[in-house]
Inverse folding.
């Protein structure tokens, strides 16, 4: 007898407001709305049992549905401001879908539309690691290259002051610095009880899913948008 497949919900937040790139989630990225890249990845995932787009914006909801994404509710306005954090957005989506479907999810995955290069294989690999390791969460990260924290400085009284994790010697080569990683915003896969009972997307035990720089772009500015568009148009020139 095969083991029961766990219920896993993907949540794609997509609010209408954006200061850096107006209507960012609907802005055409190589000919289609940026939001739709994440919808396609969720649709192609073999491990997500359900996914949903969470938005307060009628046009975004309409576009999401036209690309095959469920968008069965309107997100409350107070969860769609610049200041609204992701956690209550995910919690709201969980409650709404569980009520609608009459089921309880074991896992939830936050999939931000600002990470259009993340694919279904990334989602499934992160979830597989979460299920196999028993961690509270698995979060996508990318290795820091040119902006290594050992090279960073505070400015105090117009003086450059080294951070605690500074270079061991002056002008140290990038290759000789210890590897560090930063969240790339693409995947936050978490156990339901961590999200709903501990009010956290990470929990106490959070494991990494390491992604290449070529799929780790996070669109926050017009410059990011242009870079990602070039990467999509010329995949053969993007190194893994």
């Amino acid at each position: 007898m095969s083991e029961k497949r766990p219920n896993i919900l993907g949540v794609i937040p997509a609010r209408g407001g954006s200061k850096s790139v107006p209507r960012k989630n609907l802005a055409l990225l190589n000919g289609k709305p940026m939001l739709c890249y994440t919808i396609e990845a969720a649709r192609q995932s073999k491990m997500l049992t359900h996914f949903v787009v969470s938005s307060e914006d009628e046009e975004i909801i309409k576009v999401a549905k036209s690309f095959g994404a469920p968008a069965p509710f309107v997100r409350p306005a107070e969860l769609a401001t610049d200041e609204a954090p992701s956690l209550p957005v995910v919690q709201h989506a969980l409650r709404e879908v569980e009520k609608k479907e009459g089921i309880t999810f074991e896992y939830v995955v936050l999939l931000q539309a600002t990470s259009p290069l993340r694919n279904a294989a990334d989602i499934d690999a992160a979830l597989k690691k979460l299920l196999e390791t028993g961690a509270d969460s698995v979060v996508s990260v990318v290795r820091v290259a040119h902006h290594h924290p050992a090279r960073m400085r505070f400015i105090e009284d117009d003086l450059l002051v080294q951070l605690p994790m500074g270079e061991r010697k002056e002008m140290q080569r990038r290759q000789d610095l210890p590897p560090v990683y930063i969240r790339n915003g693409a995947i936050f896969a978490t156990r339901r009880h961590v999200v709903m009972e501990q009010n956290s997307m990470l929990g106490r035990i959070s494991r990494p899913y390491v992604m290449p720089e070529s799929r780790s772009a996070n669109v926050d500015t017009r410059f990011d948008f242009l870079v990602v568009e070039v990467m999509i148009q010329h995949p053969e020139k993007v190194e893994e």
